[in-house]
Input
Amino acid sequence: MIQADSTFLVTGVTGMVAKRLVRELLKRGHTVHGVARYSSPGSREELDEMGVTTWKRDLSTDPVDDMPDYDYVLHQAVYWDKSKSGVEARRAVMDINAALAERVMQRWQNARAILLASTGGVCRESDELVDEDTPVQPNPDRQNYHLAKFAGEQIAVANSMLHGTPAVILRYYWPVDFDEIADRCVNAVAAGKPMPGADPEEPFRWTPIDLVDAVDYTIRSVEVADSPPAILCCGGPELVTRKKLTRTAADVLGVEPVFENPDDYHWESFLADSSRLYSRLGEPKRCLTEVVRETARQARDR
Ligand SMILES: NC(=O)c1ccc[n+]([C@@H]2O[C@H](COP(=O)([O-])OP(=O)(O)OC[C@H]3O[C@@H](n4cnc5c(N)ncnc54)[C@H](OP(=O)(O)O)[C@@H]3O)[C@@H](O)[C@H]2O)c1
Output
């Protein structure tokens, strides 16, 4: 069990998942430190105001010996610049992310546990459910991002075994805000339009996990850390498609659904079987179809 007054370091603390993570850690009574480069103006001040002790470092190069030890380290930082392309950009993604994993595992090897955030993209896009035993085949798309995440996993495994550090690797499958997806779906259906994607890379068929659940699993996953590390898929409880979500909202609103062409999507399917995670840490709380249904009900009754 994680004690209430434990100390946590969150790397990449300015990130999308990390910001939710620190809010929850503070709510649970923990002492929270965060490290990032604070490349967006105001991002450090925002975290300072929340009560996070902030460290400004490029974790791939800057010294970290003067930073404290922690009970737990949640390694969320990832380097990836979508605006860049070419060989140099691909090499930078590999080199920087490998350096991040290596330096975190080295410096905080005495932590009670280290969590490494990875991605379901270490396995191929697939129409079938993917689990921890599916052979990895990192997607070559996106500047080597998936390959770099797999390299990070290997570095974490090697360091955990070398130093005896308990570690856990979570392969996230689309940690997202279900309320945002439900609003996007219901608003489109009410306007007689097809449901748009959040960005061009959101798949047509996928197993997203609500951020509330992803954050809870991320924190509690340190309880199942081990050496060699446990690797766990971290996706949502149901396979959803835009078609199914659109139909769910249309049924409640009593309108004719309009569907987008699945061929318009960059990726068709990313599906996780996360039953191993659920068997160790319990079932997730939020189910996207139910959130869409409830959002549609509220829109209908307004
Ligand atoms: N979001 C997803 O759909 C998804 C899916 C699968 C896996 N994941 C994994 O989950 C983790 C969190 O994802 P996210 O989407 O929340 O990430 P994110 O928003 O891109 O945040 C990553 C943070 O890392 C920091 N960072 C980058 N390079 C750094 C460096 N050299 N030193 C220190 N900090 C650095 C950046 O902050 P500064 O610029 O301020 O340094 C950035 O805010 C990542 O490891 C990601 O690979 C995410």
The mean pLDDT is 94.
